[in-house]
Specification:
Blueprint lengths: L1 E5 L3 E7 L13 E7 L1 H11 L4 E8 H13 L3 E2 L2 E3 L5 E7 L3 E4 L8 H12 L6 E5 L10 H9 L5 E5 L2 H5 L8 E2 L3 H8 L6 H13 L4 E5 L5 E4 L5 E4 L12 H16 L2 H16 L7 H8 L4 E4 L5
Parallel strand pairs: 1-4, 1-9, 2-7, 4-5, 4-6, 9-10, 10-11, 11-12
Antiparallel strand pairs: 2-3, 7-8, 12-13, 13-14, 14-15
Helix pairs in contact: 1-8, 8-9, 9-10
Length: 310
Amino acid sequence: MIYTVTLNPSIDYVVETDKLKIGEVNRANKEELYPGGKGINVSLMLNELQAENTALGFLGGFIGEYIENTLASKGVNTEFIKLEEGFSRINLKIKNEVETEINGKGPHISEEKLQLLYKKIEKLKDEDILVLCGSIPNSLSNTLYQDIISMVAQKNVKVIVDATSNLLLNTLKYNPFLIKPNIHELEEIFDTKIDCIDNTIFYATKLKDMGAENVLISIGKDGALLIDSKGKIYLSNAPKGDVINTVGSGDSMVAGFISGYLKTKDYKEALKLGASCGSATAFSSGIGEKKLIDILKNEIEIKEICKINM
């Protein structure tokens, strides 16, 4: 079974306006609601690919009820822990000439509720897959992901981590099966500017040397880079299309990679499906649909490239 963990779920409220006027009343031309959070996005794409999975995390208030009901309507299994106080986030995304975001703070997570999540994690079995991704509430420690991984370290559980900064780095000593920073997060981790594929390979290799089994880097219009467990380096292109929404694109790539690997046990094929899913979501208003994924997959080319020396 695949388990996704979203510690800070949200409703993403997307509003389009002609022009945002600060200090005045603005009217929306278009508005949409989506259940949000990186792990939830992974679950939704896995569901689109008919890969059974269960979404874990914390939900609070009427917003939490909306998130859970929406996921249930789409056929996603959920085992969220309900919070008696506070409510899950509303993230406001305003689109006009530029995109502006205001993300909610999120509820306080008590030690009692955290222990309930730990009990669910401890029940994972050999061959299960655990996906840890996204931000965490301010009330929780930035060692949380490594604490969770330590609970399954003695089991044959494949762990995927898609997080930023220390949330990601703290997990590397447990040799996660896959990590997936994007190019900007890679720059942030190493406090540098990365302006070419050779530099991307160099710093991705550093992450692999620090403990990650496979390193997948999403690089936007330039596609994606994978350094696999055997040290082979693959580069995918990005298909042509109009980018409508980048939210959830990287999460869709993670889901596609997982599904592709489980079906084929081939990293090259996993990258191809991952790149297809990421692009499908980028070209859609929500999570990309299977029909579009299948079309885009025919446009994805994967090439193996030589390791560089720097």
